[in-house]
Amino acid sequence: IEQRKPCDTMKVGGNLDSKGYGIATPKGSSLGNAVNLAVLKLNEQGLLDKLKNKWWYDKGECGSGGGDSKNPSKSCSTETQ
């Protein structure tokens, strides 16, 4: 996905790897369950996806979705002779 200028690259294929996130609390702390429940609630409400889109896609330098999703032929072309 094009996210940085000069906006002339594109993603081909799937991700090679994906990482998760964690929040540390002291061992035995009552905060662990509260944090888990809060994160699950945010996920169920779709807020985590909204935040991901806001910071990873909507803030890109190449437009809202990167590339030209309406006209994929502009994103990639081939020549045959």
What does it look like?
This protein has 81 residues and is mainly alpha-helical. The chain has a domain at 1-11 and 32-60. The protein is built from three helices and no strands. The protein has helices at 31-44, 47-58, 72-75. Residues 65-81 have low confidence and may be disordered.
Tell me the overall shape. Answer: elongated
SS-derived structural category: mainly alpha
**Largest sheet, described in full?**
none
How much is the average pLDDT? Answer: 75
Q: Tags for this entry?
A:
81 residues, disordered C terminus
Record the SSE blueprint:
Elements: H1 31-44, H2 47-58, H3 72-75
Keywords: Receptor
InterPro entries: Ionotropic_Glu_rcpt
Protein name: Glutamate receptor 2
Q: What's the gist of this structure?
A:
This protein has 81 residues and is mainly alpha-helical. The chain has a domain at 1-11 and 32-60. 37% of the residues lie in helices and 0% in strands.
